[in-house]
Every structure is written in structure tokens, then in C-alpha cells.
Write a structure and sequence with these properties.
The chain is of the alpha/beta class and 426 residues long. It has a 7-stranded mixed β-sheet with strand order 2-8-7-6-5-3-4, with helices on both faces. Helix 1 runs antiparallel to helix 14, helix 8 packs parallel to helix 9 and helix 12 packs parallel to helix 14.
């Protein structure tokens, strides 16, 4: 972590003046309180803010629907039949993939279930799945259901990994050790653990999994738009993600999926087939003979919602303009600075613990703060002071200083408020 920080509001303002992408904050609507003051919004890990351009993107499609009706599928400014193609290049850049490997479709858990149907191929020798014990519940639900549907026991055949005693994150060596179980067929981890903010070493885990003939899949809900990804290079088998967090595509936004190029023409694999996976050239011939598209598009089911895609494209166009390396550079600096302030400005240091790794290479922009002995009153106090953060039972407050729209001054003021609210309780 950067140790050259200074503990002052003036220094925070200096960092903001030096921030080369600070102007992009003005590309987003910042929520305001009843007095029209901007809140300190640190909840982009749960729901990203709305780009100001989103309304125009959506209104374009509404206008074309109004004027063209069904002809909008071909004659709209952005023809609806092909709209999912308009986000492919951007998604490929964000995930370190090829356009043939990524698409926008469905929702996250629907995509995960689709991938499990394809890649979970249990037999008498290999039938277990590895996941982190603190994975988001919907991931566990999906994993348990696929194991049960194939006639195996979710209680014994889903191997859940937890940190060692008195530790808060899972060691990579413990994940690799779990892969040595001869019965493991798949490992499915979150790219970033939603609770602790720990980033898993996808590259190493995938290499070790493949050495043992194990499928490696990842949930990128807290990784895409937050961390530098190289899914193609890392040889990941599949990945899924949502778009309403760091991708700022709105509540319930259309999700995304990655399938490595080596499966592009594996038409023998199980898949949940649907009309939009049919060869695009023959789709409207209405044949009952399924001829899947090459690449990830062959796993599409229904036609994607154009309005949701428009929201996603509005945000992705900002990512393309900013440049992801610029975002990563600011993200590391901003998160490091926030951690520095928490470590230096909280007088009752024994009351708090940052359970997110302090190594910038093992986290994104999320910090999970455990307040020892506290209940939800601390979180409620932050809310009353116009800080929008996130509470996770039993005692963790999650914050995410997002580089696209958060500032160094906001981090400084947040920690001031945190100190005040802790002192009120103790």
C-alpha cells in the first residue's frame, strides 16, 4: 500500500486535482439528500450509479419503437436484431476475451445455471464441485440444484472452502489442496468474494484445475468493471456476471457470459437451447432443427431486451472512453488511500478490522469493515450522515470507492463520519 499519503483534507483535495479521470464523475447522477446535498455514495458494489447519457440511449430505442414498430428490428438507428453485437467489443475488452467468447444475455443466475448444465458432467469418478463457503447464496442454490438434479448429494458433493481459523480470507494454497480430491469435477468461485472483497487468483487456480482435469468457472459479479481480467489468456472455461454493479447498467440489468473459444464449435455439449442461439442466417426460417451459432452466441436462448442493452451500452461507452488501465490506476490509489485513512483516523482502532486483503493485487475497490461488538446502529448512523454503504450480517459494512465517480475528498469525509459514529456508540 502507498505509504506516502498525508492525513489531511488538503491532501485529499490535491489528489482530486491530480486525478486525470476526475471529469467522468460529471457523467453520472450523484444521489442527493432532502436538502439537495450530494450523498457520499460508496455502494457501487451493490448498484452502480446512473450515467447521465442513459436516458438518451433508452429514448432513442423508445423513439424508434414509437415510429417504426416492428420494423425497428431492422430499421432502427441501432437495429434491435443485432443490438447484442453492439456491446461485444466493449465486453471483450473488459474481460480480456475475444468477441466470439462474450455476450450479454439473461440474468446472472440464469446464465450460471446454463453453464452448469453444459459443464457439470458428473460420472462415477468425478462428481464433486468446489465453491467458497461464503459465496453469494444464489450461487450455492444453483450448485446444489445441479448436483441434486444429477442424482448426487448436495450436502456431501459440494465442497465448501472457508478461511483458516482466525483468518478472514481463503488461501490460494488451500484452494489448490482441495483440487487434489480425486472426485472433483468442477471448481466454481466468485472472482471477488462478495463478503470479504477477496480477489481469487483466477490464473493460478485455472492452471491447477486443468492439471487435474477439472473445469474452472467463475462468477464475475464483483470483478467485471472492477479488476483487470484476462479470461482468454487464463484459459478459463466459463464465466458469468451481472451488469448492475460496477457496469452501471441499472437495477436488474441484463447479464453477461463468457465461454472460452476452444468450445466455440463444441456442438456436442449439453446446452439450454433457444431461438436466439440458432444460426443467425437461418433464425427466421423457423426451422425446428437447431443449428447453434459458433461461439458463446450459440448458448443464447431468448432475444435480449433492447432497453436493458441500451442502458448497458451507455455505461460501456464511458468505459471505452476512459480506458480501463486508467480506471485501475485510480482504483488502486483511491482504495489504498481509503484504507490508509481508516487505519490512521479511527481513534478506537481496536473496534474495527478491515477483512479485505491489504495487498492491492488481492482486491478490487471494495473494503469490508468489521466493527467488533457493533450492531446495525453504526451502519444506521452512517446512513443518517448521508453515507450510502452496504450492511452485511452480522457486523460488516462494505464500501466501494468506485474510480469512475468517487473522489478522494469523499473518502476523507467518509472516514471522518465513521470516526464520529463509532465514538457515539462507544
Amino acid at each position: 500500500m502507498n505509504t506516502n499519503f498525508e492525513n489531511s483534507l488538503e491532501f485529499a483535495k490535491t489528489l482530486d486535482k491530480q486525478d486525470q479521470i476526475s471529469k467522468y464523475r460529471n457523467s453520472f447522477f450523484i444521489p442527493k439528500d432532502e436538502n439537495n446535498n450530494e450523498v457520499i455514495y460508496l455502494c457501487g458494489n451493490s448498484l452502480g450509479l446512473q450515467p447521465k447519457s442513459t436516458r438518451a440511449y433508452v429514448e432513442q430505442e423508445l423513439k424508434d419503437w414509437e415510429n417504426l414498430g416492428v420494423k425497428g428490428h431492422y430499421n432502427a438507428k441501432n437495429p434491435w436484431k443485432y443490438y447484442h453485437h453492439f456491446v461485444k467489443d466493449s465486453l471483450a475488452k473488459l474481460t480480456g476475451a475475444k468477441p466470439i467468447e462474450v455476450t450479454a444475455m439473461n440474468t446472472l443466475t440464469a446464465n450460471l445455471n446454463s453453464m452448469l448444465y453444459t459443464f457439470y458432467r458428473p460420472n462415477n469418478d468425478k462428481f464433486k464441485i468446489i465453491a467458497e463457503g461464503t459465496a453469494f447464496p444464489s450461487d450455492i442454490f444453483a450448485l446444489k440444484s445441479i448436483i441434486k438434479n444429477y442424482g448426487y448429494n448436495p450436502e456431501t458433493d459440494l465442497i465448501l472452502l472457508y478461511p483458516r481459523e482466525n483468518e478472514t480470507t481463503i488461501r490460494t494454497e488451500d484452494i489448490i489442496s482441495a483440487l487434489d480430491n480425486a472426485n472433483v469435477q468442477m471448481i466454481m468461485l466468485g472472482n471477488v468474494n462478495y463478503y470479504t472483497g477477496q480477489y481469487f487468483d483466477i490464473k493460478t487456480i485455472t492452471i491447477e484445475a486443468h492439471k487435474r482435469n477439472i473445469i474452472a468457472g467463475f462468477d464475475l459479479a464483483h470483478g467485471v468493471g472492477n479488476l483487470k481480467l484476462k479470461l482468454h489468456e487464463w484459459n478459463v472455461d466459463f464465466a458469468v456476471w451481472c451488469s448492475y454493479k460496477y457496469l452501471n447498467a441499472g437495477p436488474g440489468a441484463i447479464a453477461g457470459m463468457f465461454i472460452h473459444e476452444r468450445y466455440a464449435e463444441r456442438f456436442d455439449l449439453n446446452r439450454l437451447s433457444g431461438w436466439w442461439g440458432q444460426n443467425e442466417k437461418n433464425r427466421f426460417l423457423m426451422s425446428h432443427n437447431f443449428e447453434p451459432m459458433v461461439g458463446v452466441d450459440g448458448w443464447q436462448t431468448s432475444n435480449p431486451t433492447v432497453i436493458s442493452l441500451a442502458c448497458l451500452k451507455a455505461s460501456l461507452d464511458i468505459f471505452d472512453e476512459v480506458g480501463f488501465d486508467n480506471l485501475i490506476n485510480k482504483s488502486k490509489l483511491l482504495t489504498n488511500y481509503t484504507e490508509y485513512l481508516i487505519s490512521n483516523n479511527i481513534s478506537q482502532k481496536e473496534k474495527i478490522q478491515i477483512i479485505t486483503p491489504n495487498d492491492p493485487n488481492q482486491r478490487g475497490c471494495q473494503l469490508s469493515i468489521r466493527v467488533n461488538g457493533a450492531d446495525k446502529r453504526l451502519f444506521e448512523g452512517l446512513e443518517e450522515a448521508n453515507v450510502v454503504a452496504d450492511w452485511r450480517e452480522q457486523d460488516v459494512i462494505r464500501i466501494a470507492p468506485v474510480p469512475l465517480y468517487n473522489t478522494f475528498e469523499e473518502s476523507y469525509r467518509f472516514v471522518e463520519i465513521l470516526e464520529t459514529e463509532i465514538n457515539k456508540l462507544y
